[in-house]
Each structure stands twice: as structure tokens, then as C-alpha cells.
Amino acid sequence: MIAGLVVVATVAAWAGFMAYVVLGKKRPEEQFADEPSQELVGARTAATAPGYVVELEVPEPAPRARRIDEDVRGVSRRKFLNLAWFTALGIGTLNFLLASLDFMWPRLRGGFGASITVDLSLDELRNYVDQRQEPYFVSDGRFFIAFYQGDPAEAEDIPAYKQANTPQTGVLALYRKCVHLGCSVPWCHPSQWFECPCHGSKYSVTGEYRDGPAPRGLDRFPVEIRGQQVVVDTSTLITGPPRGTTTSQPQPEGEHCVTVASE
Ligand code: FES
């Protein structure tokens, strides 16, 4: 939309400028020195009549006329150049401002930062997670879909779950960014935990802290269920549950993928 505005504003500015130059006010014709005045025409007519002797008053020589092509439109060459320069400067500035605005304008038509509808239905997500024994990764939103495993009443008392609508939906949208220093956290199939390759932080399948330097569990996004659709609002980041939260997997289910020494 803003790109269209840039084009329209540019065309309008140049059109206005050209209209001003082309339709500029004409100077009065009598100012042109190469056309005789009415008085002089009358005097010449009388002087040619038979029997008349007319003492002609020689008019003062007219000031040297400026070039017609400079004056005929009321816009001198210098004025034209000044106008062109300032118009170009104004258009350039306007384009820069609109381009900056376009760059900063949030894109809310999908992708990270917007509400995202997961491409699998709720039933398909359950089947995926059950059969593959791993959360479903949504690359557009940079989150994993997992399912809450504890008591819904318990989730009501944990702000990270309550704010994400977990008691109502049972669905979790876990931000894959490690809450320690921001690395992407992959799923470790053998241990059935998320394990950060950077410094070894580990999280359960519901994103609860289990090991390493991370200060808390994985952050997450609010989830809404509309029929079979799972809608995740990635514009709202919810702080992960504190250390000590254990509604799922207190222990790994197999070998770790990351063996970096923890704190
Ligand atoms: S960034 Fe993940 S443990 Fe440090």
C-alpha cells in the first residue's frame, strides 16, 4: 500500500510542477518592446494624411526587452531551475519518508509476529505427536506444538500456562528460542526433551526447565482453538514457567543429544 502511495505522490508532484510551468500566468502583451504602442500608431496614421504636418514626439526608447521565451510563461530560466531543484528535493524526501514508513510498518498478514493458523487440524496434530513421539514444528511461527500432560486445574495456578490458555485448549505453542542466550532449541528424540546445543539447557516436552543455565522454562504463545483449527498469536510472548515446575517428564526417557556441561 505504501509503495503505491510513493508512486502516486511522485507522479502527482511532478504533474503539479509541470502544470505550474506550462500554465503559468502570461505577462501582459504591452510589455513587449517590439510591438508599437497605440499612441504611436495614431501618430503615424495622422502623419500620412494629406496636408497635415505633424510634429512627432519621439518616444523614449523602450527598455531593451527581455527575451520573450523567458517571459512568455511568466517563469524565467532561473526560476524554472530553482523550482525543478526544489521539486526534485521534495519528491526525494517524500519518497525516503514513505519508504522508511513502509520498512517499519508491521506485516500482519501471516508469519512470525502475527496470528498463525497451524496447517494441521487439532486431530491431525494429536496423531502426529502420538505417532512420531515428537512435537510438531511450525517454521513460520518458530514454535513447537505440544500437548499439556498434567492436571488442567494445576495449569490454572501456573501463570505461563494460564496466560497461554492451556487449561482450556490443552495445546502448547513453545517458542524455540532458548531463554538462556537465544539459541534455537531442537527436539532430542532419545531423551524426549528439548536440548539446547549452545550451553546444554534442557526442557521437558511441555517446555519446563530441567537442566543447564537457562533461568526458566521455554517461553510460549497464546493458543486458541476454533473448531479443528489451532490458532497461535505470535505477537504475544508469554514468559516460561519458573524452575521447579514439573507437570511433565521429570526425567529424560533416554540418552541426551547434548552433553555440554551444565552449570
Ligand atoms: S543459549 Fe541455550 S543454553 Fe545457552
Describe the 3D structure.
- This protein has 263 residues and is of the alpha+beta class.
- Helix 1 runs antiparallel to helix 4.
- It is 33% helix and 14% strand.
- Mean pLDDT is 83; it is low at 29-33.
- FE2/S2 (inorganic) cluster binds next to loops.
CATH A-level architecture of the largest domain: 3-layer Sandwich
Mean pLDDT: 83
| Quaternary state of the chains | single chain
Unique ligands: FE2/S2 (inorganic) cluster
Order of helices and strands: HHHHEHEEHHHEEEEEEEE
Counted beta strands: 11
Name the strands of the widest sheet in spatial order. 2-3-4-9
Approximately how much helix is present in the residues?
25-40%
What is the makeup of the main sheet? 4 strands, antiparallel
> How many angstroms separate the termini?
51 Å
CATH C-level category of the largest domain: Mainly Beta
Find the CATH superfamily of the largest domain.
Rieske [2Fe-2S] iron-sulphur domain
Give the number of domains. Answer: 2
The gross shape turns out to be rod-shaped
- The Rg value, from CA coordinates, equals 40 Å
Number of helical stretches of at least 4 residues = 8
Beta-strand percent range: 5-15%
Predict the CATH topology of the largest domain: Rieske Iron-sulfur Protein
Structural class: alpha+beta
